[in-house]
Amino acid sequence: MKINKWQFRKISDLFPTPRGNVRLDNLTVLNAILYIAENGCKWRALPTHFGKWDTIYARMSRWAKTGILDRVFERLQRKNVLQIQIKAVSLDSTSIKVHPDGTGALKRGGRSPSENPEEDGTPSFIWLPRMPKAQ
What we know:
Elements (H helix, E strand, L loop, with lengths): L4 H4 L17 H14 L13 H14 L1 H11 L57
Helix pairs in contact: 2-3
């Protein structure tokens, strides 16, 4: 899955204008995000021709938190540039660290985390694309 310059013109207005000394253009970052999504690899395994993985991750994180990625993928689907279908989402213990309370050790009193899930807090940042409903 790769977006070319012609396809990118259809969505370029959704991205913020880069400020300062920006080495990676938005098209390169978007293609890197699509590479990670398609191959399911770790960020550190991103091929070097995309640029530094941590730079791309930071921009992707910003775009996801501000809703830019949701709007981009929605327009890509509506313009029939890219068709994404999520069939399954899986997280395993190799990508999620266990809290020390979850290791099975006996506790010295206090509640277990599962007694009141509302107070346990939110999970770490995980971005999943929200796809528009089929019409």
